Amino acid sequence: MIEARRITVRGRVQGVGFRPFVYEQARLLGLKGTVQNNMDGVRIVVEGEPRAIDRLLMRLKKRPPRLSRVDQVLEEKVPVKGYRDFVIQESDRRGDSSVVIPVDAAVCEECLEEMFDPGNFRYRYPFINCTQCGPRYTIIEELPYDRPFTAMKSFTMCERCASEYHDAGNRRHHAQPIACPECGPKLILFTIGGEKLAEGERALQEARIRLERGEIVAVKGLGGYHLACDAFDEAAVRRLREGKRRPRRPLAVMVRSLEEARRLCLLSEAEEKMLASPESPIVILDRRSDAGLPELLAPGLGTLGVMLPYTPLHHLLFADGSLRALVMTSANPSGLPILYRDEEAFHYLADIADAVLSSDREILHPIDDSVVRVRGDVPLFYRRSRGFVPDPLPAPHPVDGVVALGGQQKNVFAIGRGNQIFLGPHIGDMDSLQVIDRFQREFRHLLKWLGIRPKAAAVDLHPGYSTWPLAREMGIPVVPVQHHHAHLVACQVDNGVNEPCFGIILDGTGYGLDGKIWGFEILYGDARSFERLAHLRYTPLPGSERAVREPWRNAAGMLADLFGEEGVEWAKRLFPERMREIDVIAQMTRSGINSPLAGTCGRLFDAVSALLGVCRASSYDGEAAIRLSELGRKTEDPEAGEADEVYPHALRAGEGGLEEIDFSPMLRELIRDRFSGVPVARIVEKFQRTVARVCVERVLSWSERRPGLNRSVALSGGSFHNEYLSQAIADRLRRAGFRVYTHRRVPPSDGGLALGQLVIASRRDKAHSEEEGSGDVHGGSGPRGGKRGL
């Protein structure tokens, strides 16, 4: 008996060889019909024996192509038409899109073998690709993903490429970026002034020679330009730092092979797997002490950001000569987005690079490298971008048409479609017009691709953030979301948690419901509402943002506020070169002039870092806290002292039972230890243990007082990049019988903020949004510092 079925497959099923896979399986099973890309995914009409159709369905679900991800398979019986063969049809571009946009993928092993095979017509071709690797998101102009709607539309396929493209049994069947030396993109080496030096193989060899002799070359990759130099050449690394005005921020390194990575760093099996994955992110690894790399790559840190070559060009740069590792850092001047056009490279890199290695294949959508740290077998994202964007995350309920514009720092936006949430690429800090322009461009493109007409926009509660005017320009209701509420919900969504739970939110900066700066929060709630249970005692931040960049100011203001004249004298003893400024800071804290009140984990770590002489001025975001936590991993005598030794703290009662955590007793003893010559690493260890212990105790205390609350805790906020805090808090809570949720698919820092914002906004009661005639929704504040009702 012959029957016919229409099958719709949704997920990441375009640009990954899915149609050729279906074609091959259908032919093997003796089935007839068609397969077609459309705006809904992949549509299959198949006729044959019911058992054979069932086997096809099983293979679609269980054995799809390497880069695909099947989210949904729908089937329905249809009339038999009597197809004589199985064919791949041209794409149908009608209707609204519900496809998942394909992600960029590292070059596969099959393509590498061909590229290094002298007998292959793509021998040493730096743009080799197939359906299982190569550019996707970065070259798409419109959907569905077909060559005429990509950056490859200007390259006409030669006979050999066309033959492979149309051969249903070939690995490159409908590989949209297919190319070869005869018909595809070409390498071009320019001087930094824009003069063409060489093309093709000569350009490659000249670039490699320049790198070997210590020059800096801007290299065009999948998503933009990198600044590259020999990672073992200290003089070249120093010159790159000076040119980029990046004195201490860690630089990412690309190594020629997994074996080289093992020589330079300590690798677990999970870290090796992540390095070699199709996503090929930067993986933060523990560096070997005998690696021979300059300390200048990551000053003061025992870790190193490492990635493997992920484009054919990268592999070719390492294939000849002596290069073992290259600095590969994003080619963007401080505060600007990654560069991706030749004219930008010539203009902005004139004082940094010596040459530009480019190509005539256009990048349509720039994207930064993703950055992860593997803990156990789970990746912890620092930056979710290339290789992962714009893959959707499942939503806990329908979120169609709701968008979230993210935060001011580490901005990432989010768009809701059906029961999916699409996070955009890493945009950066929204402090310049160039970054805001990049945000708007990528946001509009993704909206168009997804076929979404926004109906509500979530923004951070902070009234001064750049996202507010962007949201108002849309002419739709604007939903303000408190920063740490968004962090809590982001962690819940990341873990598929729908019920209320505790939240320990340790962060740098977030605008609070009381107008003060929050960032050390014990919360309880979900997407509907949250209650603030405890927080860090507020202290003035003299000079506001300047105190963030210069932690010694933060420390001096904290001491002056908490300990009066005694604190001022301590500050002068600790920072003797700043005596006159300390008197001004003390006056600012007393009068409240340009000294907003803050109680954040980030600023606490900054202050302690400065007090201990670890970092008095930060050259990059989070430097003071990062270098402090690094010392905590290097205790001089791990056997000294009690394993559970902590500093004292106090609790003060606030409005409505809200608890205020007062660390002034800790700071007094910490400074006494500093003046007494206690090793700094031991002080750091005790300090971090105290912070972790207090967080756990507050959750346990509230759980005992309110036994009806769920015994589960979400850990979120940028401070949870600190390995000690994350592990110590999670371990203690689990031993106490709590379920603990940590981030798995988005960063705990502001790169994951939009995920929580979107889900909160979608839960906001519709009647509540109608209360404001202006279209702005300002509800949800509740009693100050207490429960936030919706």
UniProtKB/TrEMBL annotation:
Reaction(s) this enzyme catalyzes, per UniProt: an acyl phosphate + H2O = a carboxylate + phosphate + H(+); C-terminal L-cysteinyl-[HypE protein] + carbamoyl phosphate + ATP + H2O = C-terminal S-carboxamide-L-cysteinyl-[HypE protein] + AMP + phosphate + diphosphate + H(+)
Signal peptide range in chain numbering: none
Pfam families: Acylphosphatase, HypF_C, HypF_C_2, Sua5_yciO_yrdC, zf-HYPF
Domain YrdC-like as annotated: residue spans: 201-387
Entry keyword set: Hydrolase, Ligase, Metal-binding, Zinc, Zinc-finger
Biological process annotations from GO: protein maturation
SUPFAM superfamilies: Actin-like ATPase domain, Acylphosphatase/BLUF domain-like, YrdC/RibB
Acylphosphatase-like domain ranges (all copies): 4-90
InterPro entries: Acylphosphatase-like_dom, Acylphosphatase-like_dom_sf, Acylphosphatase_CS, ATPase_NBD, Carbamoyltrans_HypF-like, Carbamoyltransferase_HypF, DHBP_synth_RibB-like_a/b_dom, HypF_C
Start and end residues of each stretch annotated as Disordered: 763-790
Domain of life per record: Bacteria
E.C. number: 6.2.-.-
Annotated catalytic residues: 19, 37
Molecular functions (GO terms): acylphosphatase activity; carboxyl- or carbamoyltransferase activity; double-stranded RNA binding; ligase activity; zinc ion binding
Enzyme category, top tier: ligase
Protein family (similarity comment): Belongs to the acylphosphatase family.
PANTHER family tied to this protein: CARBAMOYLTRANSFERASE, CARBAMOYLTRANSFERASE HYPF
Name this protein carries in UniProt: Carbamoyltransferase
Organism: Planifilum fulgidum
